[in-house]
Design brief:
Length: about 170
């Protein structure tokens, strides 16, 4: 596994629509392994392939909603799509490609995602709260969408640190 460089928001690759994965081969497995290594080194909660310069529909999401005492784990999603969403949350969001900037984004509270695993097997996975936010944010990346374009407003560092920002 190797850490890959993360593109930042100036890079045009981040604004392109990504193509589906059609071959579930060692090259895809390497990409997934490298993305997981990169995400873990960056202490992020999600990463999309275009952020490492690969314009394919691949994302990694960290599941942080785990029972007390259990380890958080990464979910590999190939060709993911949101098939159900409900509820609403409004809160702070950031992105490894937009370092040091945070903004308020409205997202569903709950989503169900259909995707394929690294071998092409279909599965469904649900996410709540931060995990739902993360699924939405990463799948947006595959459409060339960065969270700043969905932000109702950016937050200052002070607001972020104090957690003191107005709901609506
Ligand atoms: Ni991002």
């Amino acid at each position: 596994m190797a850490r890959r460089n993360i593109l930042t928001k100036e890079d045009p690759a981040l604004y392109k629509k990504c193509r589906p994965v059609t071959e579930f081969n060692p090259r895809l497995h390497q990409l997934l392994d490298d993305m997981k290594e990169t995400l873990s080194q960056e202490n992020g909660v999600g990463l999309a392939a275009p952020q490492v310069g690969v314009l394919r529909r691949v994302v990694i999401v960290l599941e942080t909603n785990v029972p007390e005492g259990e380890e958080e784990y990464m979910i590999e999603l190939v060709n993911p799509e949101i098939i159900e969403s409900s509820g609403e949350q409004f809160g702070a969001e950031g992105c490894l490609s937009v370092p040091e900037e945070y903004g308020l984004v409205r997202r569903p509270m709950h989503v169900k995602v259909r995707a394929q695993d690294r071998n092409g097997e279909s599965f469904e996975v649900e996410g709540e709260g931060l995990t739902a936010r993360c699924f939405c944010h990463e799948i947006d990346h595959l459409e060339g969408i960065i969270f700043t374009s969905k932000c109702e407003r950016m937050l200052t560092k002070e607001e972020l640190e104090s957690g003191d920002f107005e709901e609506e």
